[in-house]
């Protein structure tokens, strides 16, 4: 892993996290999957939900990683690690608090979802992402569900057969009141 990424993630050093943006995309591209795995470990810790420092470090690192993936066109290379982090969010609370604020894991899920599903026209990425995307439809976060339905509709247009195995889950979600998915019927 790139030295600065390793330092920021190992020490959860918020004061150095912004320095990641001074690095060239190509300089860090080879270490992005490893950094995503470290973020998965940090975000799975018992105190992550209440640790503002760790949440800020993770948010900055995810922004830097997704930017580098986009700029280096390396989504296929890092897709598996992105999907693994995204799927790990399903193990945590995704429902907004009473003040309509997303939970830390819903924020991660939203950022990763946008990075992955903007590549709806890349079948290898969608083959990894669609099974996880469908799981998010059942999790009760309306904003994630609304965004997911938009991306899934694009994926259906680009490569409908990727969604064929998931029509039951999509229909169940519609029947359970996920109104944003009604376009499927």
UniProtKB/TrEMBL annotation:
One of its GO terms (cellular component) is endomembrane system. It is a peripheral membrane protein. Its main location: membrane. Keywords: Membrane. Coiled coil: none annotated. It is found in: Endomembrane system. This is Ventricular zone-expressed PH domain-containing protein 1. It comes from Grus japonensis (Japanese crane). The lineage of its organism: Eukaryota, Metazoa, Chordata, Craniata, Vertebrata.
């Amino acid at each position: 892993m790139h030295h600065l990424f390793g330092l920021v993630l190992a020490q959860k050093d918020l004061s150095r996290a912004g320095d990641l943006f001074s690095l060239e995309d190509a300089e860090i591209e080879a270490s992005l999957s490893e950094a995503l795995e470290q973020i998965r470990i940090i975000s799975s810790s018992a105190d992550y939900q209440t640790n503002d420092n760790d949440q800020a470090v993770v948010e900055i690192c995810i922004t830097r990683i997704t930017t580098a993936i986009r700029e280096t066109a390396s989504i296929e290379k890092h897709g598996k690690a992105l999907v693994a982090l995204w799927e790990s969010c399903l193990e945590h609370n995704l429902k907004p608090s009473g003040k309509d604020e997303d939970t830390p894991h819903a924020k991660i899920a939203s950022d990763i979802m946008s990075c992955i599903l903007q590549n709806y026209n890349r079948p290898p990425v969608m083959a990894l992402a669609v099974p996880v995307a469908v799981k998010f439809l059942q999790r009760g976060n309306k904003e994630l569900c609304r965004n997911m339905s938009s991306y899934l509709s694009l994926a259906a247009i680009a490569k409908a057969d990727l969604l064929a195995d998931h029509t039951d889950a999509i229909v169940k979600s519609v029947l359970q009141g996920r109104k944003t998915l009604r376009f499927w019927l």
